[in-house]
C-alpha cells in the first residue's frame, strides 16, 4: 500500500525483478507526479529513503509513503529577487518559507503569500505539494498598524496617571511652602532693622540748624560780638 502526498492511498503490485521506479511509473503518471522528484520510504522510517533502483519485492506486504521534492519559484518583495524553493511534499507552506522569513526577521502574521497574477492569499498551513512548478509572491501584510492594549488596562493606566499627578502636586506644594519659609526670615529682619533705626532716631532726636541754641555761658558779650 502506497500513501500519497495528498493523503490518499493506492495499492501497487510488486513483481520480482521489477524496480521500485518501474512499479511506481504508472501510479505517478496517473497522479501527475514526476518520477525524478519522488521520494519513497517505509512507514516509520522517514529518515531512510529507499533507492528507486531497488527490487520492488522488498516492499511486498509493506506500507510505504511516497513524497515529492516540490520545487516552486518565490517572488520575494523584501529582497527584490525571485528564487527557487525546494521542500518535501509533507511540509506546509510556512515550513517551506521558514528560512526566508527568519532571514528578513518576519513573523507569519506579517506576511502575505499569493499566486502570481492573483490577489487571493494562500494559507501558510496549506500543503506545499500543490505549489509544484508554480510561482508565488511574498509580500508584507496589508493593513494599518494597531497598538493592542490588554483588556482592563485602561483603568489601571488611569489610576497610575492620577497617582502621578497627585504626587507632583504634593511635591509642588511642599516646594512652595519651603520657598515661603526661606524668604520669610529675610523680610522679617528687614522690618526689625527699620523699626530699630526709627527708635534710635526718635531717642536721639534729629535737630535742624534752626533748632540749635548756644548755652549762655558759651555766648560772647554783645560788645565783643
Automatic annotation (TrEMBL):
The lineage of its organism: Eukaryota, Metazoa, Chordata, Craniata, Vertebrata. This is Regulator of G-protein signaling 14a. It is found in: Cytoplasm. One of its GO terms (cellular component) is plasma membrane. The keyword Ribonucleoprotein does not apply. Pfam families: RBD. It comes from the Eukaryota. Its main location: cytoplasm. PROSITE patterns: GOLOCO (PS50877), RBD (PS50898). SMART domains: GoLoco (SM00390), RBD (SM00455). Keywords: Cytoplasm. Coiled coil: none annotated. Residues 1-69, 71-141 form the RBD domain.
